[in-house]
Amino acid sequence: MDIDYNKLVFFLTVVRSGGLTAAAKKLYRTQSAVSQALNALERQLGFKLITWEGKRLRLTREGTLVYNAAENRLRAIEEEVTAIKSSGQEVGGSIEIGMLNDASTQLHELLFTKIAQFRTNYPAVTFKIHFHTSVGIEQALLDREIDLGFLINFRGQQRFRLIEISTEQHLVVASPQYLTRVGGVASVSDVISKDLIDIDQYFTCFTPWVEYHDAASLPILEKKAAVIAVPDFRAIEQLVLAHQGIAVVPKYLVDKDLARGRLVQVLPKLSALQVWVSCAIERGRQERPCEELFLKTLSLKYPTGTILKF
Hints:
With 310 residues, the protein is of the alpha/beta class.
């Protein structure tokens, strides 16, 4: 099959941009022209690539496969071009990275080890690490104070290109004293009815947990507000230890508290929530050669599912 690669680029741009309007601006085309190109590509391929829920973009199963295949091939071409450009000349520059104040030791070790490996090959590249809250990292990316951000649960995901690098287990926990006071919990809906602590008022941490274990209860969660919202997992840990409510937190952060009985896992028969730690780059921002090479050193891939985060 002779695929029209111009139309394929239109499709990739729509997915990366999160919609027709933003894609049309990047392609310097009308929204109607972009829509027509997508329709023509779907007719050529013989299946739907995209469905729409209002203005919200959703990839079909086939669309996900086509997107990942095309994205991976284009990424490989871009990496080859970067390698050609950098061959025979010293790569320099400075890379500024945002990390969570309470990031896991494993993530710190991964990043710092990879920086050391990278600088062995590219000693002219320097690094500066900034420690922020999750909100601070996102804002620093948008303000272009940092180049890359390592974080989980990005709120404004449509603003960033997310590259998934590792997973973490998150647990729902509370203090025994709090559960005794409120009468315990026996279901997801019981959890929602209690005092919930999260990194923001939109339940960025609780939403995926509820969606995974009891999606029918999501409308109930959406009507609530967190009793305390604080964008720092260590602060959340201290609030839970102070018997202020229930929270979803990284397992590594509360392992010792659980072992000592200071905290307990709520609904322990439910599986832990697997969340992705992502490296984020602001959409539309052109990566410099040193950044592209560093991402390659990290062995970062663009796995299936990344683009479903819009």
